[in-house]
Known about the structure:
This protein is α/β, with parallel strands linked by helices. The strands form two sheets. Strands 1, 2, 3, 4, 5, 8, 9, 10, 11 and 12 form a ten-stranded mixed β-sheet that branches. A two-stranded antiparallel sheet has the order 6-7. α4 (about 145-160) packs across α5 (about 175-185). The chain has helices at about 15-20, 60-70, 100-110, 145-160, 175-185, 205-210, 230-245, 255-265, 275-290, 295-310, 320-325, and strands spanning about 30-40, 45, 55-60, 75-80, 115-120, 135, 140, 165, 195-200, 245-250, 270-275, 310-315. It has a single domain (about 25-325), classed as Aldolase class I (TIM Barrel, Alpha-Beta Barrel). α3 links the parallel β4 (about 75-80) and β5 (about 115-120). Helix content is about 35%, strand content about 20%. It starts with 15 loop residues before the first helix and ends with a helix. The structure holds ligand PBG. The site of ligand PBG has 11 residues, from α6. Homooctamer. Its cofactor is Zn(2+).
Amino acid sequence: MDNLQFNRHRRLRQNSTIRDMVRETHLQIEDLIYPIFIADGEQIKREVPSMPGVFQLSMDNLRAEMEEVTALGIKSVILFGVPHEHDKDEHGSGAFSHNGLVQQATRAVKKDFPDVVVVADTCLCEYTSHGHCGIVEGGKILNDPTLDLLAKTAVSQVEAGADIIAPSNMMDGFVAAIRKGLDEAGYEDIPIMSYGVKYSSAFYGPFRDAANSTPQFGDRKTYQMDSANRLEALREAESDVLEGADFMIVKPALAYMDIIRDVKNNFNLPVVAYNVSGEYAMVKAAAQNGWIDEQKIVMEMHTGFKRAGADLIITYFAKDIASWLKG
Ligand code: PBG
């Protein structure tokens, strides 16, 4: 051993107190945003088959859900609407209707739980008959005509009480258009959490079951990004920052940890990781088979998102994580 030089890294791992003292990343309840699906109708509590533990809820079941969420200490939710098929149309007008599902749910949450931060998902795909995130003409998804509808949707969500607008449509210029629409309506204080770094991904499959938003023709590849690309993510993020985004979402999360880090290193705004439906489904399925330790895996994944650079995490595991952090 005499002339053998090496460092003893194990010194700082020798017991749990020392390990706690030198831990670099901490997952906290404040980091979590919990997604909720609002179904049209009454007395609906329908579990999404590919997402055990995630439900489509009608308005009359929302209060009980919010009581559970707030009792766990979760401070923020993101709302998605699940309208009836027969209420969908070419322009997704349910997205910007005064009595739209997200608008109604937002009003209900803000009335009974005023301190909860309500994030509104601003997209058309749940409300369009063709399932795309923009106006369609001759099989094409039109960019500029869609922008007005997105701004209208954002304004109507804020009128209902939404605290943060989260546009997920990936049209070019959507942050600028929404910022302008909000400002003109007097909502210059409402932040935009842009889903500007959104990849075209098979990991959204279970969400499309949950939200009935599968495109009726083609796919989303002309507006969502190619999963092979990294510089493209930086270009997208740069545009959104210039257009006035206040937060940047990177989505999905697990297969895109490098992108989370890139966005964190290149831009000075809070980064949000979205741990999407397919990632949730994979963990749940393996856990139900007894193949993995769900709690350990979920905590490791979410701590990993934070280590990669995420400040916040949108996650279907929020309730589980909150109860584990408490316990
Ligand atoms: C709407 C939207 C989607 C997700 C969030 N907002 C679906 C999509 O783009 O197809 C996916 C979320 C998830 O998979 O958990 N555009």
